[in-house]
């Protein structure tokens, strides 16, 4: 997957070029035009394919004539693996028909080598358009996720009252049976009392699921107040260590002087526990689980790189595990209610969706990154209850 283009970082350019002098000339032209970049040059199918994955280029410059590896073949590989990366063709001479065909196949643009002054502007435009498409895709994904959560919210609001009433009746009758069983010494009543206790536990789990549904849809009753995330983490640290078990190393990296946020402290501690349980499920053979807090100030330029963030002061909560990770397909659904890549585990179906609901209710946003076999990172940004220049 193509790596993101971030402010202050060199633009990664993968060059498909079999002539070292031409490759060097292109680099000089880009440097003279003021581009901040780093390049890797390849001239075979094997090396091109390897660098496409290892280097994660933001732009590809491909010579039209590379012996043994036609430009069309490189373009096909790129479009199959990462259709969003700009693919710019360089050629000493390229006829109109060939140029049109390359564009039809998915090339972003082409530049004739005898007109090098055009190349920097073509690259800048291609990168800007790719970033815009990425932001648009993120906004659309966020809107889709918000709509799905809104449906859950309406569903939860509609059923919560009725569910709780009916389950309350079940719990009351189960309690009557359990109490009656406890008062009798005849054979068989112990088993009846045990069965009544199981009914009560099941009913309590149903109430817990309804409460989670309401949290996902931000319709539950919360008690927001000024919260020190570091104190919240320290308050459940022993429980988190117990939850992940002895085979998982627990680490905390809490920034000094962390800003306060406005949230429900009980819900904050609940999402920490949910994330720890998810990490534990992802690391049955052990690994590491870490929690980090940081004060961050998001500039307008940085906000443009993340569609969900507005400029301002935030407290960033980042939770990492070294578990199995998720595929890109699973990652797209990670915050959806009841979505899981594992067989059903009792009581775990709303974990990440509930996390997202609590974070958004506090005015923040969250995202998740994961690689199969390399673990998962959940990052939440919560608006600071102060200006970045003041003391909370």
Structure, explained:
By secondary structure, the chain is of the alpha/beta class. The chain has 3 domains: 104 residues, Rossmann fold; 80 residues, Helix Hairpins (Orthogonal Bundle); 159 residues, Histidine kinase-like ATPase, C-terminal domain (Heat Shock Protein 90), CATH 3.30.565. The protein is 48% helix and 20% strand. It has 12 helices and 12 strands. The strands form 3 sheets. Strands 2-1-3-4-5 form a 5-stranded parallel beta sheet, sandwiched between helices. The chain has a 5-stranded mixed beta sheet with strand order 7-9-10-12-11. A two-stranded antiparallel sheet has the order 6-8. α6 crosses α12 and α9 packs antiparallel against α12. The chain is elongated. The relative contact order is 0.09.
Count of alpha/pi helices: 12
User: How are the strands of the biggest sheet laid out side by side?
Assistant: 2-1-3-4-5
Question: What does the overall shape look like?
Answer: elongated
Name given to the CATH architecture of the largest domain: 2-Layer Sandwich
Number of strands: 12
């Amino acid at each position: 997957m193509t790596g993101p283009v971030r402010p202050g970082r060199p633009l990664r350019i993968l060059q498909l070029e079999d002539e070292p002098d031409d490759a060097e000339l292109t680099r000089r032209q880009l440097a003279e035009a003021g581009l901040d970049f780093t390049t890797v040059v390849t001239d075979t199918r094997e090396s091109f394919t390897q660098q496409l994955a290892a280097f994660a280029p933001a732009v590809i410059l491909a010579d039209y004539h590379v012996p043994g590896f036609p430009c069309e073949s490189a373009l096909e590989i790129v479009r199959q693996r990462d259709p969003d990366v700009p693919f710019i063709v360089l050629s000493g001479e390229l006829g109109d028909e060939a140029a049109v065909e390359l564009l039809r196949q998915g090339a972003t643009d082409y530049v004739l080598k005898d007109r090098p002054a055009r190349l920097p502007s073509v690259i800048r435009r291609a990168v800007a358009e790719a970033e815009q498409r990425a932001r648009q895709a993120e906004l659309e994904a966020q809107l889709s996720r918000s709509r799905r959560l809104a449906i859950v919210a309406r569903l939860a609001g509609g059923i919560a009252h009725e569910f709780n009433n009916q389950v309350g009746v079940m719990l009351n009758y189960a309690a009557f049976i359990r109490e009656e069983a406890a008062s009798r010494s005849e054979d068989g009543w112990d088993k009846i009392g045990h069965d009544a206790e199981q009914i009560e536990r099941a009913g309590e789990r149903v109430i817990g699921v309804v409460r989670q549904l309401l949290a996902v849809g931000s319709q539950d009753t919360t008690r927001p107040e000024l919260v020190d995330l570091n104190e919240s983490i320290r308050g459940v640290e022993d429980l988190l260590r117990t939850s992940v078990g002895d085979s998982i190393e627990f680490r905390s990296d809490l920034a000094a002087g962390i800003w306060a946020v406005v949230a429900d402290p009980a819900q904050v501690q609940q999402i920490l526990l949910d994330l720890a349980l998810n990490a534990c499920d992802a690391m049955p053979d052990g690994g590491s689980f870490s929690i980090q807090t940081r004060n961050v100030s998001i500039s307008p330029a940085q906000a443009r790189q993340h569609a969900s963030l507005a400029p301002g002061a935030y407290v960033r909560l980042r939770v990492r595990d070294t578990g199995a990770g998720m595929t890109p397909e699973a990652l797209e659904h990670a915050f959806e209610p009841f979505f899981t890549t594992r067989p059903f585990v009792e009581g775990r179906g709303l974990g990440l969706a509930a996390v997202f609901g609590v974070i958004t209710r506090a005015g923040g946003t969250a995202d998740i990154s994961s690689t199969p076999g390399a673990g998962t990172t959940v990052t939440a940004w919560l608006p600071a209850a102060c200006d970045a220049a003041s003391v909370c």
